[in-house]
Structures are given as C-alpha cells and as structure tokens.
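tokens incoming
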C-alpha cells in the first residue's frame, strides 16, 4: 500500500515539475500542458486530482488546501489562452501560479512522501 502511495506522490510531483519546466520556457506550451493535465471540462476525473485524493489521509489541513491549487493551473491557462499573445508574460496568473504556488505544492509532496515512508 505504501509503495502505491509513494508512486502516486511521484506521479503528481512529475506532473508539477513538468509545469515548472514549461513555465520557464514557453507560456503557451505551459497553458496547453495545464489544460491537458487538468482539463477544465472534467476536473474530478483528472488523474492528478484522483492521486491527490488518495493521499488525503496523509496530509495536513493546509496541505489539503494547497492540493486544491491544482485547479488554478487550468483556469489561469484558459485566461492566458483567451487573452492571446498580447498578454505580457510575468503579469499573468499562469506565471504567478508556477512561481508561487508550484514550489509550495512540490514541498508538500516531499513532506507527504516522508510521512508515508515513516509509517512503514
């Protein structure tokens, strides 16, 4: 069971790191990736969210709150894509999410992995 949980933490972490890499390279690609990983049409069915939900018992209340930030990425991506190329990088919610929310979410995942490992 713990091995499966660690794999879920790793999968989420890899998805978030992909956001971070794209955020430093190309906002259009980041927006596309965010909408692919967390599609607005069916947020509850997205794999990244289901993985987060399975980790819920191992999270603190604040970590649970920060886990829901995953829904900020597709919303910010949608706004960015609707505004078009005239929208200035660095002054948008998508860049803000990558630079401010993402590091905290990754740190939470690292803590959760340590907590799960400690249980075994």
């Amino acid at each position: 069971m713990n091995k499966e949980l660690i794999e879920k933490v790793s999968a989420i972490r890899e998805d978030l790191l992909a956001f971070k890499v794209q955020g430093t390279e190309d906002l259009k690609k980041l927006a596309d990736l965010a909408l692919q990983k967390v599609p607005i049409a069916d947020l509850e069915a997205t794999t990244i969210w289901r993985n987060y939900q399975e980790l819920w018992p191992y999270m603190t209340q604040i970590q649970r709150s920060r886990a829901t930030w995953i829904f900020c990425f597709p919303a910010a991506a949608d706004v960015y894509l609707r505004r078009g190329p005239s929208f200035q990088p660095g002054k948008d919610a998508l860049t803000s999410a990558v630079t401010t929310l993402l590091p905290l979410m990754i740190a939470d995942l690292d803590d959760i992995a340590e907590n799960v490992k400690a249980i075994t």
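note: The first helix runs from residue 2 to 25.
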